[in-house]
């Protein structure tokens, strides 16, 4: 049984209940609760989504509708690092597709996939709001602008050299 199939641990359940108590309506804490789950497991499994829904007195379908609406909530397993490559018109004009092709060749994956070693997941995303520095990407929690091939090479070298946890 993987950790994604185990019930949420007591301490995480307590955090989620505290978030719910701090809101006028428990379901108002749903995004923050899902973020807590994701920060622990890197993604939100269906089992964990059901646990959160129960804690917030929501249906799993309602909560899944919210979870799938947010680009930064992952409903499928992701790598230790996530590269969100902006695919807005500004980034596209400034060479986003060339960068994506380079990443795909370098990492031997396609958008939406994770490297074989589990180090990096490459995901397209809608506008990151960094259009004045297009092309842009979000690497884990770091926003990068004016992305070029040398920057990508340094980044992929750094991320793939890190040992797994």
Automatic annotation (TrEMBL):
Keyword hit for Iron-sulfur: yes
Q: Which UniProt keywords apply?
A: 2Fe-2S, Iron, Iron-sulfur, Metal-binding
Obligatory cofactor(s): [2Fe-2S] cluster
Entry superkingdom: Bacteria
* CDD domains documented for this protein: TRX_Fd_NuoE
Residue positions annotated to bind [2Fe-2S] cluster are 86, 91, 127, 131
- Gene Ontology MF terms in the entry: 2 iron, 2 sulfur cluster binding; metal ion binding; NADH dehydrogenase activity
What is the cofactor note? Binds 1 [2Fe-2S] cluster.
Q: Pfam families per the record?
A: 2Fe-2S_thioredx
Which NCBIfam families does this chain map to? PRK07539.1-2
Which PANTHER family does the entry mention? NADH DEHYDROGENASE [UBIQUINONE] FLAVOPROTEIN 2, MITOCHONDRIAL, NADH DEHYDROGENASE UBIQUINONE FLAVOPROTEIN 2, MITOCHONDRIAL
Family to which this protein belongs? Belongs to the complex I 24 kDa subunit family.
Annotated protein name in UniProt: NADH-quinone oxidoreductase subunit E
């Amino acid at each position: 049984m993987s950790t994604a199939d185990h019930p949420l641990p007591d301490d995480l359940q307590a955090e989620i209940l505290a978030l719910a108590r701090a809101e006028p309506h428990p379901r108002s804490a749903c995004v923050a609760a899902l973020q807590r789950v994701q920060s622990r497991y890197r993604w939100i499994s269906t089992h964990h989504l059901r646990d959160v829904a129960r804690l917030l007195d929501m249906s799993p379908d309602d909560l899944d509708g919210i979870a799938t609406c947010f680009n930064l909530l992952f409903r499928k397993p992701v790598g230790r690092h996530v590269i969100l490559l902006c695919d807005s018109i500004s980034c596209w004009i400034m060479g986003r597709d060339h960068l994506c092709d380079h990443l795909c060749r370098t990492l031997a994956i396609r958008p939406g996939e994770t490297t074989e070693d589990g180090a990096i997941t490459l995901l397209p995303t809608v506008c990151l709001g960094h259009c004045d520095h297009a092309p842009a990407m979000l690497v884990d929690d770091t926003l990068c602008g004016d992305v070029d091939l040398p920057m990508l090479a340094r980044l992929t070298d750094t991320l793939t050299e890190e040992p797994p946890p």
